[in-house]
Amino acid sequence: MAASFIDKARIFCRAGKGGNGAVAFHREKYVSAGGPDGGDGGNGGNIVLVVDDNMSTLMDFRYKRKYVADNGMDGQGARKFGKQGKDLTIRVPRGTVVRDAESNEIIKDMSDSEPFILCRGGKGGWGNAHFATPTRQAPRFAKSGLEGEEHDVVLELKLLADVGLIGFPNVGKSTLLSVVSKARPKIANYHFTTLYPNLGVVYVDEGVSFVMADIPGIIEGASEGKGLGLRFLRHIERNAVLLFMIPADADDICREYEVLLNELKRFNPDLADKGRVLAITKCDMLDDELIAEMQQHLPKGVETVFISSVAGLGLAELKDVLWRTINDEDNRIPTRITHRDLDITHRVQEEDNFVIEQEGGDDTEEETWDVEWPDEYWEEDFKDD
């Protein structure tokens, strides 16, 4: 089951090429010198990303890694425009972050439901009918279609949850999730039982619930990649509240809490701004006197709850504390991922150069035209479509 959870994939995407404009002249009985009537080429198809809530992993991208949209058709005579290339839709799970594979810059965070055009198709070329003027009534050239955009991108899936469970391996995270929700993660008495995140819906009251994510165990040095730390830590970035879990039999609860908190800060300093709750687990063998003694040596500045998932101790209080923390205005901060406005414009005048070739008759020579493009031609090319 663990092998089926894929949260990172690299794919290549290329939009369709625009169709070429046609060089043609009107031919009709009793009509002499009908003039140019070459149609424009069709635009190439786009690569469009769409959020699919029915997907939970990036498994589909493990077997197919190249996505190419259809090219636009060439124009024809009689001012017939070429058919536009069909857009290629790629469905991704909600919470997928799209990065440029070379620069590692974030292109898009697919957390909303709006489709996103990752690669725009090339614009179709103009037919020779566009270039007719009073002094050049029979243009024997047309414009070639532009190439479509292409990107080599990395897809990263970061699970969206209200509460993320943070702790060392084998502290009871999966057990807690299985008790407070209907999720059934793997539970065993050894480290790193959980190798991929699990989600569960926790019901607090009628019509009141939140999503809890069981993040695989974190060890000291996880921010440097130890114990697959970098793979697990990125899922924490999308949680609103962090629930730190430390067992009651730990040698030093304060030290373990500081180790976990420091690993998060080193991975992403913005994680320190998220709401935090501390749960002392495996408390079913503690009496009230021992709990009161332990409360004198707990970390300061974080609300603490003593729980036991097996005995059901303190779970109702924990749910109330988490729900209150989730709805605290101070914790409603935006996801701290820096987006930049990616300039994906590829339509520059240098790419519009073309070779003018015309086969003449026995008495004619090949003509080369020094074309002065009309202003509306460049406006059409550079407008934001």
Describe this structure in words.
- With 385 residues, the chain is α/β, with parallel strands linked by helices.
- The protein has helices at residues 173-180, 229-233, 253-267, 288-294, 315-326, 375-382; strands spanning 8-14, 47-51, 66-68, 88-92, 96-100, 106-110, 116-119, 150-157, 161-166, 198-205, 208-214, 239-247, 275-281, 303-306.
- A hairpin with a 5-residue loop joins β5 (96-100) and β6 (106-110).
- A 6-stranded mixed β-sheet has the order 10-11-9-12-13-14, with helices on both faces. Strands 3-1-8-5-6 form a 5-stranded mixed β-sheet, with no helix packed on it. The protein has a 3-stranded mixed β-sheet with strand order 4-2-7, with no helix packed on it.
- It is rod-shaped, with a radius of gyration of 31 Å.
